[in-house]
Design a protein that fits this description.
With 153 residues, the chain is an alpha+beta fold. The protein has two helices and nine strands, in the order H-E-E-E-E-E-E-E-E-E-H. It has a domain of 93 residues: Immunoglobulin-like (Sandwich). It has a five-stranded mixed beta sheet, with no helix packed on it. It has a four-stranded antiparallel beta sheet with strand order 1-3-7-6, with no helix packed on it.
């Protein structure tokens, strides 16, 4: 009887020892984490807007993007960004390079997700003009000054 009790105890100890290993998840069996690509919004100036050389650019990036991975290029040239974490989103500002004048410029933005290895990309197009765009009020004022004044009789 004592021998049967020892065998049962031994069987119980061996079973408990291997049960933890049987339930453990091996690294190759782990479910991969879903990577959420960073999203970009609130591009300033707006798409296809006319801007002066060396104008300021800004955009927002969804949270979950690695702050150090956010980058921008203007016409293929890297742009120095000022990046600020606003808790619910990330704000980025930059200035257009001085050598970009008169023509369309594509602004390309990139960011990597903090979790996973996915890259978010976006961009927009702006038109750089050396002379500042004329507003409707300025145009009306210049037209009024060009009209000859009739003498009062």
């Amino acid at each position: 009887m004592l021998r049967v009790l020892h065998l049962k105890s031994l069987f119980l100890v061996v079973t408990l020892a291997f049960a933890g290993q049987a339930m453990a998840v091996k690294p190759n069996e782990e479910e991969p984490k879903e990577c959420k690509k960073p999203k970009f919004r609130d591009f300033v100036p707006a798409h296809k807007a006319e801007v002066a050389p060396e104008s300021e650019l800004s955009f927002h990036v969804s949270r979950g993007a690695a702050l150090t991975s956010i980058s921008a290029e203007a016409h293929g040239e890297p742009v120095a960004l000022e990046v600020v974490n606003r808790k619910t989103y990330i704000s980025a500002k930059a200035k257009l390079p001085a050598n970009l004048r008169d023509g369309f410029v594509r602004i390309t933005v990139n960011a990597r997700a903090e979790e996973g290895d996915c890259l978010g990309q976006d961009g927009w197009l702006i038109k750089v003009v050396d002379s500042a765009p004329v507003t409707a009020a300025e145009q009306n004022a210049s037209e009024a000054s060009e009209k000859p004044v009739e003498p009062v009789k």
